[in-house]
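Researcher: Please translate sequence to structure tokens.
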Amino acid sequence: MSDDGNELRDGIESGEPAGEEEEDESGSPFDHPAFLPAVLWPMALWFGYDGWINQDPDMLEHLTFNRWGFGVLVALGLYFTFQAVREMRAGDDGERGP
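Model: Translation complete:
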């Protein structure tokens, strides 16, 4: 005999909808809207340091790559930071309710 219907039956008996159990679980840190900006900005700083400040002769041959990488990461950082702020504000407005 299979137990396929036990989860549904348990949800009905307890009075809770079966799908709410998953919503109550906390998400991972990777699900937070600010995760990607928190990764992109330090990488952009690293590329900026290597592109304009660092005077190590071994790194001078990668100067163009670091400067382009800095520009791309700053653009992505700005975009995803604004998206994260909008998403967090939308989440705050939804929690307050009427």
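Researcher: Any highlights?
Model: The chain has a mean pLDDT of 82.
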